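In response to the reviewer comment on reproducibility (Comment 2.3), we provide here a single inverse folding case reported in full, input and output, so that an independent group could reproduce the run without further information from us. The structure tokens appear first.
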């Protein structure tokens, strides 16, 4: 879990940097404060709602799909992205 969590957090932070956002800017456009963002970078676990909010603040959407779903099929049908 920790590896996947860190990948999501790192991706969101990289997107924020690409947009020229610093941690305080990211906190300002999300419901997360700077302390929460700092803790999230080191976290071994996080709430789904926290990850969803972080994603939303950088223009991403966190979704839950069945592990057996054909992701490329869902994307091509417009059901995922």
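Designed residues, in position order:
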């Amino acid at each position: 879990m920790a590896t996947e969590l860190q990948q999501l957090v790192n991706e969101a932070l990289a997107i924020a940097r690409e947009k020229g956002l610093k941690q305080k800017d990211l906190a300002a456009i999300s419901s997360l404060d700077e302390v929460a963002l700092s803790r999230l970078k080191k976290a071994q676990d996080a709430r789904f709602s926290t990850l969803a909010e972080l994603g939303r603040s950088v223009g991403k959407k966190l979704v839950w799909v069945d592990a057996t779903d054909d992701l490329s099929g869902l994307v091509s049908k417009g059901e995922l992205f």
